[in-house]
Amino acid sequence: MTKTYTSKTEVSFNVRVGDAWVHVGFVPLTLGGSYFTTSDVRLQEAIERHRFYGRLVLAAPQTPAEDKPSPNDADRSSNHPQPISFGSLADAKEWVAAEYGISRTLLRTRAQIEAVALDHGKILTIDNPSIQPQHDYMERP
Q1: Residue 30: is it exposed, middle or buried by C-beta count within 10 angstroms (0-12/13-18/19+)?
Q2: Shortest CA distance to 35 belongs to which of 14, 51, 2, 59?
Q3: How far is the C-alpha of 65 from the C-alpha of 82, rounded, in Å?
């Protein structure tokens, strides 16, 4: 079973699992706090024995797993990609990053954004692509 641990601060510490020491580094969140997820039962037990557990580190509430297919799975199973319209390339980038959990640094070009969306069964259409005027650096605009 996968467990997620949360903290109100950015935390990292070492725990002993068997004969080895394991570094547990929590991933920082944008609005503060951090989290760490693991499915290793021995690591979970070690974290719950650590002195930070209960004070700085708490186990996140577990939601029961459902066997229902997610909407994303249904989209992938269809043979026809679904078109989605955006007003700008920036809006499309933000939606793809948020919807599929892709890092924005991996979505630098329009081709990269469209490729990720197509992998998930979506075709992006951009109504108003941002076209920046091209100026010669020696000229003033």
Answers
A1: exposed
A2: 59
A3: 27
> Which tokens is 23 given?
């570094």
Which of the residue ranges 45-49, 82-86, 107-111, 131-135 would you say has the lowest mean pLDDT?
131-135
What H or E segment, with its residue span, contains residue 94? helix 89-100
Cα separation of 19 and 22, whole Å?
10
What whole-number distance in Å separates Cα of residue 108 and Cα of residue 29?
Answer: 22
Q: What is the pLDDT of residues 42-96, one digit of tens each?
A: 999 999 999 999 999 999 887 665 555 555 555 455 567 788 888 888 888 888 8
User: Any residues with CB less than 8 A from the CB of 87 and at least 6 apart, and which?
Assistant: 126, 127, 128
**Is residue 116 a contact partner of residue 109, using CB atoms and an 8 Å limit?**
no
- CA 112 to the chain's CA centroid: 17
Nearest to 26 by CA among 45, 52, 1: 52
d(CA 47, CA 131): 51
